[in-house]
Amino acid sequence: MNWRIITWYIGISLLLVTALMTVSGIIALWTPGDESRLSLLFPAFLTGTVGAYPLIFVKRNHHALTFKEGNCIVVGAWLLACLFGMLPFLFYGHEFTFINALFESVSGFTTTGASILNDIEALPRGLQFWRISTAWVGGIGIVTMFSMLTAGADKSALSKAEISNVARDALMGENSGSFANRMLLTYIALTVLTFFSLKLTGMGWFDAATNAMSACSTCGFCTRNLSIAYYANPAAELVLSVAMLAAGVHFGILFLAFLKGRPKYIWKSETIKVFLSLVGIAIVAVTVDLMVHGTCASFWEALRDATFQVSSISTTTGFATRDTTQWPPLSMAVLIICSLICGCSGSTSGGIKIDRAILAAKGIHRKVKLTVNPRSIQLIRVDGRPKSDEQVSDAYGYIFCYLLIVVIFAAFNIALGLDFTTGVTASVACIGNVGPGFGEVGSMSNYAAFPPVLKAAGMVEMLIGRLEIFPVLYLLQSLSRK
Questions:
Q1: What does pTM read for this prediction?
Q2: How many angstroms separate the CA atoms of 46 and 43, rounded?
């Protein structure tokens, strides 16, 4: 591997982090009495210095990036972004010990939304914006963001390494670079639209901006201790529900449907129809369950709570308007299932992805049919396109690895003292980049009480889940051969 070009590209990613830190520092300068000015601007200087070094002193070799190099750039960029991203928290201090600062940074960049903060509202505005910024840039992908500065084969190699095959398969005929451009443009447009919509509901500009960034990145970081419940605003909840569901849909299809004026693509997509249908079924099931158990005072309250929480969890956002740990068992079970499968590929959502679930289900259905009638020809199609046996096997393999990681980390959590509910749902929430689980990590709780070793385990899961497992395995295999 060419380490010169790898460090060169990772340097660009750190400059992107520097730019966001600087913007947050400027907001701190504009805010009277903000204590986070130096905590943001000094780390921005340090990060910018480290990021600029390879661009100035390391000679870049002009050759096409290989897959291994692209994969190394992706994993390296994510790891260093998280490490340098923790510096503003660490310099600020207060609740941010080293492990807490790193946990908050990893949680933000991976759009998990799990927090160690007991008093979020005590953070200065500049640091609040930095916290949300990590989630926003992590939502679209650090490498996807800075790959806009590259061209040709390099952009394609970087996009292939960060954007999964299942995401690109949804738009056949699109090269990886073009797909990345469409994702970024759609992401920005969705964030801006959500911001103005939240302003119309009565939110202040800062809350509207940060909640829009958090919803569209499907992170769930909020500037309020009570999350979205603080606002008690049904209109804002509706806007955020729509934004979260839109962010859980394939951005390439959103681009064609709305930015290109071809809405038929939304209704033509089998994957999106299945995703939205399952979300609708989950909302109905939770609404009925809440009514049967008398958890809500009226049908409309039950429908409102169910719609928001199902939309939040099924897109791995993690915003909350209710303490779901107090909900009936069936409702909690539905939310756990939602946090496993989650949204579509090519979105900012985490989890297994509905695309892989559909492929696996159709693969099982074909297997049953072939067992009954071995001579029949059974093709698997998704959105009218035939899928190869290799693609089906990839879906099986990913789901197996995903669930295996959930089990391993859940067992680790329980072995180190967490109760069963907390241990299992924390594992599901971390690898799925969901944030809240149940038990001690419910929708109105956090991860502050976790011992350092379990916070470290959670961070590993978050990164594995955000990078979709295989880039990490590819890198480990490459390094093991040295």
A1: 0.91
A2: 5
